[in-house]
Batch of 2 targets.
Target 1
Amino acid sequence: MALIGLFNKAKNRTGEMSFWGHIDALRGHLIRCVIAILILAIVLFCFPEFLFDTIIFGPLNNDFITYRAFCKLSHLLNLGDQLCFGNYTFKLQSLGLADQFTSLMWIAFLGGLILASPYILWEIWRFIKPALHDVEKKASLGFIISSTFLFITGVLFSYYIIVPLAINFLGNYQVSKMVENNFTMDSYISTVTTLTLASGIVFELPIIVYFLTKFNLITPEFMRKYRKHAVIIILVAAAIITPSPDVTSQMLVAFPLYFLYEASIFVSRFVIKQKVKA
């Protein structure tokens, strides 16, 4: 009853919610988001073998789908076994007493966050929905769907393409035959999660460009003018992400990034046309 009374007092005579009313409403949305993340994290926490053996350590298995696909592609392109990889000999070690337990908690939390991302975006949309017009509501719903799709696509792209290529290079790289490759579990998990989350954020580029164009910070003409520079940056990024010397694996990373750039130009042009119509 006290909460209802506070909510009612948060509205002024015009029916608009006051600042503290917005804060109270936002708190409710944030609490529901946290609850959703925790519930999913707890569920994942109860299945450590699936979470680690199947998901996290999946790219270490010789029969991982990416390795089989790359090997078939290599034979299809008459490259022999150049793209056939995945036979790892290094071992993962847990050096701290609580490392495995804390790693399980961290991965379960990240998994819950990723799985709950559509719901989190929906809660954000529910929070801003009352302040939007009908046209803006439709656009906001499209934004939520697009953002979720791009983020999940980026995560999957990293997990199935970038992570296996990075592990293949870094796991087999040696400065000397006298040094044996044995990595800590924390190091491996950090590499996988960092690449995966970073890719999910990079794939949000069209959404970022949308808002930058909205605020007149970027234009499609600007992006077209510096397209050549963007291509160079993309190729360098692909070379860093996939340190393997073969060009084929680098192109597999570079093409999607370039497609995102071209899609961002289209998004920027669309925003400018909408501004002209308005």
Target 2
Amino acid sequence: MIYDSLDHIDVYKHVHPGVYKGLRILRDTDFSQLPDGKYEVDGEELFYSLMTYQSKPVNDTPETHEKYIDIQCVLSGGEAMAVAPLEEMEEVVEARPEGDIWLHHGPTPSVVYLTPGKFAAVWPGDAHAPGIALGEPAQCRKAVVKVKV
């Protein structure tokens, strides 16, 4: 997992070409003019989704992915994302392989805070529970870049 500011993306230039391309999209795109939805960049190799949602008090089903790296970046509002290694998850409670998402039960003791300008990149070995309210639930807007591994 990487947690950082979009101001520092050049540090990640050699981590993975798709990740760096996704970070440049997050840094350089004016998302305020785009409606929520899916936007293909390189077909199924790299795309992003824009979503508006209400943060929630808890997220007790951390998710994982097998085919994609997620780069999550809040555009407005803020959220906490609880994270843990996949091997610490206790059980799969729902599997949706067609959507590359597995929901788990298990402890997520570490938390990162996503506010505008910050991002978290999570790999297939990273369980993550996004969308947790910072205090009271509030409206948020987020971009999630998906990079095929």
